[in-house]
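Check this:
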Amino acid sequence: MKALDGLRIGCVRYLNSRPLIEPYAGPVVLDHPSALAAALARGDLDVALVPVYEALRSPGFAIADGVSISSLGPVWSVFIAHQGPVSAIRSVSLDPASLTSVNLFKVLFAEWGDSVPNYVAEPSPSGPEGARLIIGNQAIAFREQHGGDFNYFDLGEEWLRRTGLPFVFAVWLIRPEVKEPHRVAAAFREIATRGRKSISKIAANHPEYRSEFAIRYLTQNIRFDLGGKEKQGIALFRALLCKHGFLPAETAPPRFL
């Protein structure tokens, strides 16, 4: 992976990112999505796997084509946990770790919801009117712990139901100063190809998750493509973000390498 030599690379610390980074033997900063996005914006990282919302509001950066964390249906690890009907939700605590998930939920409710709930930083009260957005490893742990005590409004599933398209949650974002960015993007595609062929091994390397669950999650819930349909999903998400004021309308579309 000579194309990546000397680059400061960051990756989310969630299980769903493992096939996109574990075949790489070089140094990697592992952190939460929002922290990686901030480090990339400051110039502390050269490349990072970050929420797609960050790519949409940073059009000067480039997206490595062909690789993503996405879903086509239930994603399992990005959801609103609630105890009553969705229509009864009045207050939602939003996880600040990923602005993509936060804005996806806001878009879904703004475009198709009967009413828009209050968004709060602190945990919402229990009961039918309170709900909570949870993502990543924390979401997996929440399901394991609480099971049927809650209902789960899966954001990937709802996006597919409303649009018929995949939803892209995260992409490799490359700073404009990086030399030979096309070679860098190609290197991440190669890593992803290797990782997808090694999912059983990756599952075994993470004993904190049951192997059968990790394999099912990484092969059925999570997708790693970034092709035509995924780009259509990104374009629609961007259009809806602009429509509802979550992204400036003059923001340029993303660039793929």
